[in-house]
Design goal:
Keywords: Plasmid, Transferase. It contains 13 helices and twelve strands. It is of the alpha/beta class. The protein has a six-stranded parallel β-sheet with strand order 2-1-3-4-5-6, sandwiched between helices. Strands 9-8-7-10-11-12 form a six-stranded parallel β-sheet, sandwiched between helices.
Length: about 325
């Protein structure tokens, strides 16, 4: 069987899908379009002018051509998975469709934030992590997945009380400021990394700030290598997960916490509806974060039943997406 995954994959999650398929003897490939960038300053300048005066993004066109060229080399695929098809125009998706017998997509953003309704008719199946979109549009519900190997809490020695890494988002930054104040008041040690182009403003501001010893707040333009993240997670008792505005699906942070037996603090109330929800392990923040208490960090993590844990593993995920239980 030949399977191809096409995605932007900024955080390097999708490569694990390919690895899981290859382990089963499937001929799997990943076309990662985030690797396609401007070659030099001249290309960036020309693209900036094109977007301004012609409303035409040359980098987007370059990426779409890259995908079609890659498919031409790979040849016909039994299945193709496109992650978030907003990256492609309709004509490109129609060409991708010709390379496979079964074209599916997984929406890890909701339609309110990333509208793609006009393209979904091309897909044989649409999976979505957002329960509101699932209810409204009849998509098949699918969460993100556990990609890290399971690591028992007993063999970890965390030095931090809380860790969080996120892309820059105005809503999150506002919440982080409120949260940081509360954590400092309770004498908790934490590390927060905010990654994105807009972070440079905060980097300059931080130069003139006195930073408490137990606070590690980092604004960075440079992305942290994905392979380095588990060491940060393991060094903390609790992981933080804050939603984007209008987001209702569960982020990868929840599943990273499950794999490493970490407690999680989140503002996503939808997490209550999942079978792994345990108030001892998961604290849902209220609007003013008044329910954040040091006692949550002091009680031990309670292990998730094995049968529930397995439902969220990558093996279960690929079985569902590619219908491998019935075809293999």
């Amino acid at each position: 069987m030949k399977i191809c995954i096409i995605s932007y994959d900024f955080w390097d999650y999708d490569k694990y899908i390919v690895e899981a398929l290859c382990k089963r003897g499937i001929d799997a490939h990943h076309i990662k379009i985030s690797t396609v960038t401007h070659s030099n300053f001249n290309e960036r300048a020309v693209n900036a002018l094109s977007k301004t005066f012609l409303n035409k993004n040359l980098k987007t066109e370059k990426r779409q051509k890259y995908v079609l060229d890659a498919l031409e080399k790979l040849g016909h695929q039994d299945q193709i998975l496109v992650m978030n098809p907003d990256t492609f125009d309709l004509s490109t998706l129609e060409k991708i469709r010709k390379y496979t017998d079964r074209l599916v997509t997984y929406l890890y953003d909701n339609l309110e934030r990333v509208p793609v309704e006009d393209k979904l008719y091309l897909f044989d199946k649409v999976f979505s992590f957002d329960y509101i979109d699932v209810t409204k549009h009849g998509f098949e519900k699918l969460t993100n997945y556990i990609y890290l190997p399971h690591c028992a809490k007993e063999i970890q020695q965390p030095e931090m009380d809380l860790f969080y890494i996120t892309s820059y988002d105005n809503r999150r930054v506002s919440l982080i400021k409120l949260l940081a104040k509360k954590l400092i008041e309770q004498g908790l040690k934490f590390q927060i990394m905010i990654i994105g182009k807009k972070s440079w403003k905060h980097q300059l501001t931080n130069i003139f700030m006195a930073v408490p010893k137990n606070l590690f707040l980092i604004f960075s333009i440079k992305k942290i290598p994905h392979n380095d993240l588990p060491k940060y997670y393991k060094n903390s008792k609790v992981l933080l997960d804050l939603m984007r505005e209008g987001q209702y699906g569960l982020s990868f942070r929840v599943f990273e916490a499950m794999s490493l037996e970490k407690k999680i603090i989140t503002d996503n109330e939808a997490i209550k509806t999942y079978d792994f929800y345990n108030p001892n392990n998961i604290l849902i923040l209220n609007k003013n974060i008044s329910n954040l208490d040091k006692s949550f960090f002091e009680t031990p993590y309670e292990k998730i039943p094995e049968e529930i844990y397995h439902r969220y593993t990558l093996d279960s995920w690929v079985n569902k997406v590619f219908e491998l239980d019935t075809k293999n």
